[in-house]
Amino acid sequence: MKLALIADIHSNIEAFDACLAHARDRGAQRFALLGDLVGYNADPVAVVARAMQLVEAGAAVAVQGNHDAAAAGDVSERMNEAAAAAIRWTQRQLAPHQADFLRSLPLVLREGSVCLVHASAAAPERWVYVMDTRAAAASLDAAESPYVFCGHVHDPLLYYMGADRRPQPFLPVAGISIPVARHRRWLSIVGSCGQPRDGDPRARYALFDIDRALLTFHRIDYDQATAAGKVRRAGLPEEFARRLESGR
Amino acid sequence: MTSSKLDPGDEIDGYRVVSLLHNGGMATLYRVERAGAELPLAMKVPRLAQGDDPVSVVSYEVEQMMLGALQGRHVPRLEAVGDLQRRPYLVMEFIDGESLAAAVGRAPLDADELVRLLAPVADAIDDVHRQQLAHLDIKPSNVMFRASGEAVLIDLGLSHHRHFPDLLAEEFRKPIGSAPYIAPEQVLGLRSDPRSDIFALGVVMYQLATGVLPFGAPTSVHGLRQRLYRYPRAPRALRPELPQWVQEVILHCLEVDAARRPTASEVAAWLRQPASVVIGVRGRRTRNPGWAVRLRRWLWAAGFEPAAPATTQASALPIVLVAVATQHRDASRQAALQAAVRDLTAMHSEARIAVATVIPPQPLLGSSGPESGGNLHVRHLVELRAWAEALQLPEQRLTFHVLEAHDAAQALLDYATNNPVRQIVIGAPPIEGNPKLGISYKPVAAAVAARVALQAPCTVMLVRPVAAA
Question: Which of B61, B169, B314 is the closest to A171 by Cβ?
Fold first, then answer.
């Protein structure tokens, strides 16, 4: 069984559809949407519709991200002004049943050996950034699953833990299948699909071949110009359009 | 887990055991057969019983990973893998040829024989290096020859591949390798440099040319460290009839600084065309340098840090940890800290900058104040990002960490211990009895800087703003 893991789509339907198609071509039967379906970019309605369609068909599962919670009306999280402006704009676009869908998403999902969460499995409601070995260890310990997949941090990274309980970071090479043995524990930050930030504008997602215990981080091209053009036409902050074009 | 002992006639997953080939410390090797197999086959079974070396199970995983990723004639082909939980084994191509270890008994060898044996080994090392692998355990018993004369590198259980997580670096922070052949940077725990294989090739060449090991077979870390500062005896001092070019190539491979060693393809070319070797001081030396040079070398070795490997990757890059006191802000101190970090990043273009602050642990549930929970965490994160904007560094060189702990010094020390932190930069405690500086630094913050400076496992830079004239 191949599971495609897609995080931080951020209202970018071009990137989302490109990742779905790429994963299907490689035999993905199931999809895990790791939060932040919306925010920043200009296609929240199409992205949420696609996600709902996949979830209702039983092809996908989804967890809630901080931008999803904010768009669904939870204003507890402070964001910078540009991100908050995009959330207010998003709230005006979404249909009530779409906002309900975002509100209803769970924070954590466990399926077999896999734990899915947007931020950290340790206190997922606090949207902690897993940016070092301590945070990775806390999430792995809380997850109680050999495989944790998350987003929130937009750059892909793989942490692996062995006997000494110290996770080690590893920067995955795009397109290379990494054996991820079941007797170890692994935390994967799969990278942002819809708003990459490490200087490479391609969309990221990961494909997990569960039976063969092989994990592949992908970076794929999509139509950034169309996505950026939509951001500008919607009157959203210019920095979000430029970020899609440059990957920064 | 089942016992690893197998007898002739035993059958596992369709493979029938023919004979025992080798009983090693980490694994047992059997000759096996399978109906319809295209290749002669060998099965490697790791030793996993209580009391066996814990490296053996990890190196089994590593070898499986590496053989699965490599291609070509210079490594055995992987045929099948047994399930680690049930019955771990690797079935691979059996190389039905001579081992380089057989040549050790015939040493010292003349130059022609050295070339015949070692040029193919240099080719094999070059091939795996091009495939992003550092073998890290090159020694005579790990080199086999095909009937065609091509060399095959076996036993990849200690290898490092740029595309895969290094499972051995994670669990074993001591030098791993074979004591006579291990490179200086491996002695210091660096496991990602393909140039370590060139050093090992130099040791093998020395051994075959002279009949002795250049650094002996030390059994302690102290003994291993000697190769950082001790010159091996010049091969020509042991065998005067050896051509100068052979000594030049051997001592070039044995350079302590990996950056000064040749590539495997250069070694292969020199072996095949000795006339192309430029003979310098290395080739002409017959005596060891005098005590003054040796002392200088010893002092240098005492502070030796291996150069960054030729093929580094971000996770292995040195980290500079900057402690920013987001809770005690003072503009002049922050500006001084920013200036210090800017200077450091200009000098060390590779280092990653980890910008960190420590805040008291936040309650997980039950607190509803505006400052509680994730908000506070994110607020400090945002402050760290704002602080770092003055550095004008590309985002991939920066990471931000809001550490939650009651003991700020301990949190910073833990971070520095658990990550490859090369240097910590932190605001200095104020100079006592100098009220002119007008610093409103709290004693608690001063204690943090002092404790970090005293206990850090790395260099600590204490930054103090220059007092206005």
Answer: B314
Contact B375 A129 (CB under 8 A): no
The token pair that represents B249 in the structure block: 């190539």
Q: Where are the beta strands (DSSP E) in B286-397?
A: 319-323, 352-359
pLDDT digits 0-9 by tens, B219-233: 887 888 888 878 889
pLDDT at B77: 94
Number of cross-chain residue pairs from A and B with Cβ atoms under 8 Å apart: 90
| Tokens of residue B234, six digits | 């010049």
Q: Alpha-carbon distance A12 to A15, whole Å? A: 6
A102 confidence band (pLDDT: 50, 70, 90): very high
Residues of B in contact with A77 (CB under 8 A): 374-375, 378
- Interface residue ranges in chain B relative to chain A, Cβ cutoff 8 Å: 54, 58, 61, 64-65, 68, 84-85, 162-167, 169-171, 313-315, 354, 362, 364, 373-375, 377-379, 381-382, 394-396, 399-401, 403, 414-415, 418-419
Question: Which has the closest alpha carbon to B264: B197, B213, B325, B164?
Answer: B197
Closest partner residue to A176 (CB to CB) among B85, B163, B377 is B163
Is the CB of residue A102 less than 8 Å from the CB of residue A71? yes
- pLDDT at res. A131: 85
Calpha distance A193→A205 (Å, rounded):
6
- For strand B421-427 and strand B352-359, is the pairing parallel, antiparallel, or unpaired? unpaired
Give residues with Cβ within 8 angstroms of B437, minimum separation 6: B430, B431, B465, B467
Q: State yes or no: pLDDT of B370 exceeds 50.
A: no
* Minimum Cα–Cα distance from B411: chain A residue: A134
Contact at CB, A78 and B395, closer than 8 angstroms: no
Cβ–Cβ gap A77/B167 under 8 Å: no
Which residue of chain B has the CA closest to A154? B396
Eight-class DSSP state of B105: T
The domain made up of A2-246 is a member of CATH 2.60.40.10: no
CA distance to partner chain B, nearest, from residue A46 (Å): 29
Tokens of A232: 């500008």
CATH fit for domain B101-302, picks 3.10.310.10, 3.40.50.10680, 1.10.760.10, 1.10.510.10: 1.10.510.10
Going by pLDDT thresholds of 50, 70 and 90, the confidence category of residue B385 is: confident
Domain B11-93: top CATH class: alpha beta
Q: Is there a contact between B418 and A166 if contact means CB atoms under 8 Å apart?
A: yes
The two three-digit tokens of residue A194, written as one number: 């819809």
Is the predicted pLDDT of residue B295 greater than 80, yes or no? no
Task: Classify domain B317-463 at the CATH superfamily level.
Answer: HUPs (3.40.50.620)
Q: Domain-by-domain residue ranges, chain B?
A: 11-93, 101-302, 317-463
